[in-house]
Specification:
Layout lengths: L12 E4 L10 H6 L4 E5 L5 H18 L5 H10 L4 H13 L27 E2 L29 H14 L3 E4 L11 E5 L9 E5 L3 H7 L25 E2 L4 H5 L4 E10 L2 E11 L2 E2 L11 E5 L7 E5 L12 H4 L11 E2 L2 H11 L10 E10 L4 E11 L10 H30 L14 H20 L5 H28 L3 H5 L1 E5 L2 E5 L1 H15 L1 H23 L4
Helix pairs in contact: 2-4, 2-5, 10-11, 10-12, 10-14, 11-12, 12-15
Amino acid sequence: MPTYDLIDSPWLLPRPRGEAARELRSLRHTLLNAHEYDSVEVEVSTQTPALLRHLLVPIVMDALGRPADRAEWARRFANGRFTEQQQQAIGDYLDEHRSRFDLFSEEAPFAQVAGLHTAKQETKGAALLVATAASGNNVPLFATRTEGDPLPLTPPEAARWLLHAHCWDTAGIKSGAADDPLAKAGKTTGNVTGPLGYLGVIVPVGRTLFETLMLNIPIGHQPADDLPQWRRPPATAQWRSRAATGLLDLWTWQSRRIRLVPEETDKGLRVCRVVVCAGDRLESIPEWEPHTAWIFAKAPKGATGMLRRPRRHMAGKAAWRGMAALLAAERQDGDGGVETSVLLSQLADIQAEGFLAFDYPLQVQTIGIVYGTQSAVVEDILFDSIPLPIAGLRTKTDTYTTLVQVTEQAEDLARAVNDLSADLRRARGADPIPWDKGQRPGEFVLHALDPLVRRFLVGVRATADDPELLEKGRAAWEELAGQRTWEVAEKLLATATGSEFAGRVVKKDNREYVYRLASAEQNFRQRVRDALPRWAQAVRDRRGAHSDQVAASTNAQPV
């Protein structure tokens, strides 16, 4: 039986700071030299939280322990790297648990079940682990590979997709393990997605891999019975529903029972076949889950109180458009209220106590999967990354108010253009474009404003919450936002024909409404002025100055 030691064999692709990734590195090397790397490169963005949560952060946290308070966290972070003592502790930890990090061990293969098999000894193609590959019902749009095509995975690839499957695997029917008493007719039904499938994942990212690891470690007590999967008895084919005992248990959750089947090929050792069966099911997403924001809704009829559930990301919606949720460090319990992630809330407290610089270049990645057809297929993978000024995480600051208002302005401008389009269509006798069908012109506005918002976020980081600098930035933002919005609006107005000039009368609820080009444009101008008061005032000031110049030149005496 082959072996593949994940501790000292190269299988991760860390990217040196400011350079392109060059070669695969071992788990030990990547962790001990985390300060030398920007990040770990991945095949798809959803592998990032899988590697962080299921491997890198749990090892660091279990080997070194969680910081007891913000001061201890700050001392570790300020070092910029693991100290020699910490490196020794991590190295000793890896050596102690080396036997559990063999990808193909006969006794306890990493994150798998030794000897796992179905009653008929069936295996499936390795593509079953790969979210972007065609397999069974999961056939991605425009996929170039069919289910019948083999997809041999190298050991490094197989290890990465193994962790991805535990975190993100689709729901639906799974093969029944021979020793699973809950399997029926060779199958297990009622399987849910991997734990991350329920979340809109939010990952704070630092300047180096070391800083990213630290930014993803919550502060506080670590329960004694909270262990990662490699410190628990090896999993068997039997699974159960239960609650997570703590973060290490949650992060390394065995949501599937899996066995990789290695074989020697003419290209070397490959995983061509796999066995994937039902795994443990979380009874609920714990309220201390640190990698998601939360949304509140009224309890259904017959129940009282508010329901708190993870806030999912929306396809096609930039991360900054959910700024209110990212910045909601203080819990909002009302219907539709939001609360940011534990980790971002923690950073707000750390910065407020002076342990983190105001202008620290924090990036926030938002990651998710859109499932379709009873969550049994992957329809889309969502990813975005935005700069996030840390001061904005404290609600009683000018930075917070500024960030929320700017993103609200962008939405208001998109609505103004959509309303303009609707009024013009009514004027020509057509219905407005439905909100859930077709592409409305407001999307072009948001697309045009996207780079401006991201540039604004970077600029806000350098203001040190200075009201004067923030106001100058707001004025510059509104000037550019107004110009971009009018560029989209002018294209709509340019398509107007004679019918829009004349307009038409619509009767509704015993009232008459007149829709024509002139009123549509007038209403649009007012909406833009309302959304961008600074820009509107600047335009009035320029017109006033121009009028004064004209008057002065008219009244001047000839020489």
